[in-house]
Amino acid sequence: MRPARSVLFLPASNPRAIDKVRSLPCDVAILDLEDAVAPEAKSDARAAAVEAVRAGGFAPRLGVRINGLDTPWGEADLAALAASGVQLIVAPKVDDAAAVRSLAGRVPAGAALWAMIETPGALLDLPAIARAASATPLEALMLGVNDLAVGLGTGAAPDREPLKPWLAAAVAAARAHGLLAIDGVYNDFADADGLTAECAQARLFGFDGKSLIHPSQIEPANAAFSPSAEEVAQARALVAAFAAPEAAGKGAIRIDGRMVERLHLAAAERLLARLDPGR
Ligand SMILES: CC(C)(COP(=O)(O)OP(=O)(O)OC[C@H]1O[C@@H](n2cnc3c(N)ncnc32)[C@H](O)[C@@H]1OP(=O)(O)O)[C@@H](O)C(=O)NCCC(=O)NCCSC(=O)C[C@H](O)C(=O)O
Ligand SMILES: [Mg+2]
């Protein structure tokens, strides 16, 4: 699975932002046709998204968030993108597993599908939505925390307290079916400390990355969802300890007073495999 530490949304109706994102260091860029685009700008935004996908030349992986198929624009979005070569479709407000299956038959051939979890119905159907990955190009569950706050009636709560059970449930559903789990946006993009704290919380819950709305949020997200120097050092020590002759034939060994097992070795090897060469 490609990294998705930083997933930057931008309105497909904003040509300056499209130009800018070509060289930004986010892992994924999502051209938005949905909520960031006013109804009267939908048609021009759709044309701009198709043109951008066709032109290519983006450093990040490029995706397009379409409008819902229950809106006046969703079908036209899919039709326009059909032959564009788009590699990633983000579907908003996926309410249940049936919606995933229905979308799967209609996304352009070869494109991956990311499902946005942002309605109370989707929260209640998380296991089935994630299970639909076995027969569809579903690749990620992505939280839409703004819509969730409205749908659940929570408002902006300190430390995202009311959302915590759903953060854990979304990650569990994604993990059970080999999907990426992407956390929602942090709206206050001038508050770097707040973003860093929320990224740390998301990492603690097990998310692979965070949805972003502004270029200034990319570096903090990339840092938060990359292994720290301490984690890398611990992983190297663990691999070395299991490679030592005295560990031969053992399933569990002692390092620094703690028990570690071969499942920890496998996790350490996975972490080291994700590192840039030379780190
Ligand atoms: C939030 C913004 C409207 C702020 O825009 P602006 O005031 O123009 O910001 P800046 O002046 O600081 O911009 C500086 C330069 O950076 C470019 N820029 C800004 N944002 C982006 C971006 N997201 N991607 C790429 N480039 C960007 C500006 O063009 C300036 O460039 P230049 O003039 O050349 O120097 C704006 O940041 C914005 O529109 N953000 C994205 C909003 C969006 O896409 N929202 C929809 C997705 S979020 C969501 O809905 C999640 C979910 O559905 C839920 O329910 O939670
Ligand atoms: Mg939303």
Automatic annotation (TrEMBL):
HpcH/HpaI aldolase/citrate lyase domain location is 5-215
UniProt keyword terms in alphabetical order:
Lyase, Magnesium, Metal-binding
Q: Which SUPFAM superfamilies match?
A: Phosphoenolpyruvate/pyruvate domain
| Gene Ontology terms for molecular function | lyase activity; magnesium ion binding
Q: Which cofactor does it need?
A: Mg(2+)
InterPro entries xrefs: Aldolase/citrate-lyase_domain, Citrate_lyase_beta/mcl1/mcl2, Pyrv/PenolPyrv_kinase-like_dom, Pyrv_kinase-like_dom_sf
The answer to keyword Lyase applying to this record is yes
Report TM segments.
none
One annotated GO biological process: oxaloacetate metabolic process
Going by the entry's taxonomy, the superkingdom of the source organism is recorded as: Bacteria
Is Zinc-finger a UniProt keyword of this protein? no
Query: Where, in this chain's numbering, is Mg(2+) bound?
Result: 118, 147
- Binding positions (substrate): 65, 118
Q: To which protein family does this belong?
A: Belongs to the HpcH/HpaI aldolase family.
Question: What protein name does the entry list?
Answer: Citrate lyase subunit beta / citryl-CoA lyase
- Species lineage: Bacteria, Pseudomonadati, Pseudomonadota, Alphaproteobacteria, Caulobacterales
